[in-house]
């Protein structure tokens, strides 16, 4: 999969829809008070950039070398010691992970204080199929209750959840609970 992302790297770095957004603002707000952060599946590096602008020391990781991460690794296998970062953030990438539960457990393991996750919510099988046709690396979106279970299953206590409008969407899709997507979760270790 990393070769596909190596080819898409520049598009993700320059995409206005990925460079900005209310979800990025929220991640920065939720990281207040932290000194260090890990940006998991950094993609275009937008979370890392925004957290650095906010004064945090940030390490970025991604399985695709072409994305230019500080460390090349999968979210399911983070090569860092337990509690290495005050904040661990992952923005709109988990739907590409082969094992989301393992990735969330790894994020919880390397987080000292807080894990921040933003991803699209499950909006039904038709939407999943459309996502897979548009992007063959898409594996699965999760519902809000599934996200809550994944986070709790990794020993994380949910502090706050925000469901946001997805910027640039041509048509608003609702998930089964009627909420818009993506969702952002702030959890503590």
Any overview of this molecule?
The protein has a single domain, classed as Rossmann fold, CATH 3.40.50.150. It has 189 residues and is α/β, with parallel strands linked by helices. It contains seven helices and seven strands. It has a seven-stranded mixed β-sheet, with helices on both faces. About 8% of the residues have low confidence.
Short description, anyone?
The chain has 189 residues and is α/β, with parallel strands linked by helices.
Features:
alpha/beta, seven-stranded mixed sheet, 7 helices, single chain, about 190 residues, Rossmann fold, globular
List segments where confidence is low: pLDDT < 50 over at least 5 consecutive residues: 168-182
> What is the third-level CATH name, the topology?
Rossmann fold
Class based on secondary structure composition and strand pairing: alpha/beta
- What is the level-2 CATH architecture name? 3-Layer(aba) Sandwich
Q: Report the end-to-end length measured between terminal Cα atoms.
A: 30 Å
Mean pLDDT reading: 84
Biggest sheet, strands in spatial order?
3-2-1-4-5-7-6
- Inertia-based shape: globular
Largest sheet: 7 strands, mixed
Strand % is 15-25%
Classified by CATH, the class is Alpha Beta
CATH superfamily assignment? Vaccinia Virus protein VP39
| Helical percentage | 25-40%
The helix tally amounts to 7
Order of helices and strands: HHHEHEEEHEHHEE
Report the C-alpha radius of gyration, rounded: 15 Å
Tell how many strands the DSSP assignment holds.
7
Q: Can you tell me the number of structural domains?
A: 1
